[in-house]
Design goal:
By secondary structure, the protein is α/β, with parallel strands linked by helices. Helix content is 30%, strand content 20%. The mean pLDDT is 98.
Length: 355
Amino acid sequence: MNGTINFPGLIDPHVHLRDPGATHKEDFGSGTRAALAGGFTTVLAMPNTQPPLTDTPSLELAKSAACKKAYCDYGIYLGAGPDNRETASRLAARVCGLKLYLDQTYGPLRIESLGLLHEHVSNWPADRPLAAHAAGRSLAAILFFAALLERSVHICHVSRRSEILLIRAAKEKGLRVTCEVAPHHLFLTEADAPQIGPGRSKVRPRLANASDQDALWTNLDVIDCFATDHAPHTLEEKDGPQPPPGFPGLETALALFLTAVSDGRLTHEKLIARMHTNPKRIFSLPDQDETSIEVDLNDEWEVCGAELQSQCGWSPFEGMRLKGRVRRVVLRGQCVYADGQVLAAPGSGQDIRER
Ligand code: DOR
Ligand code: ZN
Ligand code: ZN
């Protein structure tokens, strides 16, 4: 049976490319090569870099690196911090959205106080995307501001039963909330941690339990996007004394979801909605003309971190057998990836907000 089909270019609204500041983990080059290998033609890059992206000079550092190195299209988030409450909105047109870190995670970016959160949410333009790392009670806080200020908010990497149920209730009440879930919370639980390893299995939000995982699948209709939260750290760090949280995910996401289709847990239509149509709408992304990916649904392969394009060289899905693989990626009429080879030129990716 010929199992080759075409999908639109996938969009990942949540990746960490470590550029500037930690390009030994990943940079706009290696991260967007990994994106193409995974079937993504657009990635939205997070601002918890070194320095964090909170003002014009830091944003310019990321933009000039991306402009020279990116192999696929990209957007860049601005980070909300204590020093840019007045100035962030001036950069709104140049970024894909404002990222609010309400809880402790990797890097120093964090909204510590209710007052600062109120100011950032009030000052950010109503028609520009606002994305929040907000779990537990922080989720309730950001949903409250979205309701109070009658604006939209996008919730990153939802992982718990209580959270997806709260978002369902908020949507039913008419709040303008959208959300994403990461593949690792749909395909792994805390029971997998011993096999992955103590440092390698560290991630924020933490891997959850089987009941949380079940709730995500049961409430699939509430999930607007699948987002990898691709967060590469070196093996040396992950296996060292202070392992930072994060998993690489760009090159395994589509195959995990195609395997779920093959197992009857998902459909191609639902996959395309969550990996293309919905993120495109939520983040107001431009059309990519003559862009598609060719996928071989029958290609069975085993995840081997060392073989991936990402610089980090490992995967939490190591050894998993998956069904479905990207054969070719065509971006704006050019074949940019074919059979394991990136064919695009560095710098050929475009900034979705600077066209
Ligand atoms: O596990 C995580 N890693 N969660 C985050 O929120 C940040 C990310 C990172 O940047 O490494
Ligand atoms: Zn996060
Ligand atoms: Zn993240």
